[in-house]
Amino acid sequence: MGYRKIGKIIGKIMILEGILMLAPLLVAVIYKEELRNVLAFAIPIVALIGLGFLLKNLKPPKEPLYQKEGFALVAIAWIVMALFGAIPFVINKDIPHYADACFEIMSGFTTTGASIVADISVLSHSTLFWRSFSHWIGGMGILVFVLIFIPESNDGSSMHLLRAESPGPQVGKIVSKMKVTTRILYLIYLGLTVLEVAILMFDKPIIGYEKDKFFISLLTTFGSAGTGGFGCVPSSIELFSPFSQYVVATFLILFGANFSLYYLILIGKVKDVLRSQEIRAYLLIFITAVLFVFISLITRMEQIPQTYTKEEAFRHSYFQVASIMTTTGYSTTDFNLWPTLGITTLISIMFIGGMAGSTAGGLKVSRVIIAFKGAFLNIRRLINPRAVGKTKFEGKTLEEKTTNDVFALITMYFFLLILVVLLLSFDPINGQTVTVVSDAGTYTVTHGFMSNFSGTIACMFNIGPGLEAVGPYASYAGYGVFSKIVLTFTMLIGRLEILPVLILFNPKTWKKG
């Protein structure tokens, strides 16, 4: 095990996090916040850069970074980022308990958006910025960003890191050099981010937040770009104008698409994009889900406490499907009270998620396609054992190992889902009544199986809000410390797609030889 090599890269990551923390520190200064808010970021910045330089100066032997080390390194990097990233919340007392702070920042970095903060209006501007900025940092991946600065290697080290962190079954270079690939990805990411901020600035400000128009536009875009979902004003996106809601929803769909497709568009290969099976399936699932939710709202309006016009019903359908399918978790209304068809549709697309190579979570559309094709191939073989079938995806014949890996990952996800729901069932909050205040009024729900089940799905697939007691107008604050720790690791496992975390905690990983 290359401990020194791992330590050296972790040191670079710590320095990077310290540099990134200068942004919320600047926000604290600009908004003339209390000294403790400035120190909340200044102290961890000094600690991160100091410790980072000590680790960075390690001199590892010239050995390649093997796959198991690359996977373990990615998991360590995310844990270190969260452990230090939580410190400002504790120092400025916005989130005084460290376990809660770790939950919140892990939710930020993993772009989950699940929160233990019941009222975000009490948070400082610097805390709000750091929460949302963590979405933008974690959206493309911490190691993807670091790869820009790590020298290109000939031993495959960079690819091991990218495969361990990037979501989806297909990870590769879009150009010959990995460093150039990561730069292109981040330029596309940055370009879309700037474009969304600019469009949102054209709209009128939210009443009561006129002075914070740019701040709100920027933080909302951070959440959109990373498909995270932390709100910066009460009630998530409900207070935004219809224009802004349509804009945010549309950008969510854009950020939920494979970034490699944007590169193909930029170099003029539009036909290759149109031939992509995954983008066609992605848009078909999205349109179908919007249609199902819209039909459920206009035909079952009497079953819900909210009253929508047809335009509002369509807008909420369009927005919530975009938000849930891209695993963002923003909300414009309390979908917790929607008809069964609407809720069932949202739960279904929670599992699917966005495209591979995007900032979205979930199983990924490509895996769903491969799984269905693999299942039908097995059925054909059962009917005709002599048939020689092949699974094709994006015009290429897939190896049987690829299909088996997809089935294995899906199986691990569902075993983990059952385990986490079981662990949450021990929490004392089960059976208690929770009061929810939303656009539909004030109502009570009992924290039970559906809260635990939907909350686990929301954390595992990095969505954020679940249903009932952890719905869009509620929070995870009621859970005990043990449950919060479990859900914190569930978010990490979901973001890194299980294997890096399992490899990290496997004793064989750390044995010599």
Give an account of the 3D structure.
The structure is a single chain. The chain is mainly α. It has 22 helices and 4 strands. The strands form 2 sheets. A two-stranded antiparallel sheet has the order 1-2. A two-stranded antiparallel sheet has the order 3-4. α15 (277-299) packs across α16 (310-325) and α19 (400-424) packs antiparallel against α21 (481-495). The protein is globular. It starts with a helix and ends in a 9-residue tail after the last helix. 49% of the residues are buried.
Topology of this protein?
Blueprint: H1 3-20, H2 22-30, H3 35-56, H4 67-85, H5 87-91, H6 98-109, H7 125-140, H8 142-146, H9 157-165, H10 178-202, H11 213-225, H12 242-255, H13 259-266, H14 270-274, H15 277-299, H16 310-325, H17 340-352, H18 365-383, E1 392-393, E2 396-397, H19 400-424, E3 433-438, E4 441-446, H20 449-460, H21 481-495, H22 499-504
Antiparallel strand pairs: 1-2, 3-4
Quick rundown:
The chain is mainly α and 513 residues long. It has helices spanning 3-20, 22-30, 35-56, 67-85, 87-91, 98-109, 125-140, 142-146, 157-165, 178-202, 213-225, 242-255, 259-266, 270-274, 277-299, 310-325, 340-352, 365-383, 400-424, 449-460, 481-495, 499-504, and strands at 392-393, 396-397, 433-438, 441-446.
List keywords for this structure.
two-stranded antiparallel ribbon, mainly alpha, two-stranded antiparallel sheet, 3% strand, 22 helices
Give me the strand/helix succession. HHHHHHHHHHHHHHHHHHEEHEEHHH
**Alpha carbon gap, first and last residue:** 8 Å
Radius of gyration: 22 Å
Q: Characterize the biggest β-sheet.
A: 2 strands, antiparallel
Q: Per the principal axes of the C-alpha atoms, what is the gross shape?
A: globular
Number of helices: 22
Helix content: 55-70%
Alpha-beta content class = mainly alpha
Strand proportion, as a percent range, falls in under 5%
Taking all residues together, what is the mean pLDDT? 88
The largest beta-sheet arranges its strands as 1-2
Number of strands: 4
Spans where pLDDT lies below 50 across 5 or more residues: none
